[in-house]
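Comment thread on ticket #2218

A.B. wrote:
> Attaching the input chain for the structure job we discussed in standup.
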Amino acid sequence: MVFWVFGYGSLVWNPGFEYDEKMIGYIKNYRRVFDLACIDHRGTPEHPARTCTIEYKEGAICWGAVYCVRGGEEKERLAMAYLEKRECEYDTKTTVDFFKEGEIDEPTLSGVIVFTSTPDKESNKYYLGPAPLEDMARQIATAFGPCGNNRDYVFLLEKAMFDIGHEDDMVIELANEVRKVLGITGLGIPKESTSRLKGPSHKPKSPISPRKLLSFPGAIAMDS
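C.D. wrote:
> Ran it. Output below, let me know if you need it in another format.
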């Protein structure tokens, strides 16, 4: 028995469960959007955070990490139970094809699980819908919950995508707007991590051209 799950948000840098294999790659025809409310990790019911989900977009690609869990029914059950509790705001599990870097036509894996959300405010109480960039940044800059600040989630996602060599233009744009709202200097990550941002990176193979990070020295972010 075995299952694979694709992470495109905090699972990229903080899977939180025991896994047997990890690969970096992408799924086709989906893109990240910050349209989902989080009320129990980095937000509250009164002041929800905005976290990312994915929406269908013909021709788009979404980079992330895929994790394999194998080794028996009990191990799989524990991993899935953890994921379902953690991803409780996502009301749907979708199966997708996964492609490693350099592979275009034939998927590396099929039937990969990805947690998604229904883009309908009536059927999905956690769906916030799109908003202007400035409004999203103000919400993200001020929301916090038991697992930390909403802004740290965005900064850590920005860094995680850099670390795997596939920055997301929209995440960078949103993170920079949050910095403007906060009036902070720095990439929003610990100083000891900034040295890893100096090397060359691979450009994402997507129709979106990457934007540059705002280059300031040091603010602090926390992981959940």
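A.B. wrote:
> Thanks. Noting for the ticket: The chain has a mean pLDDT of 85.
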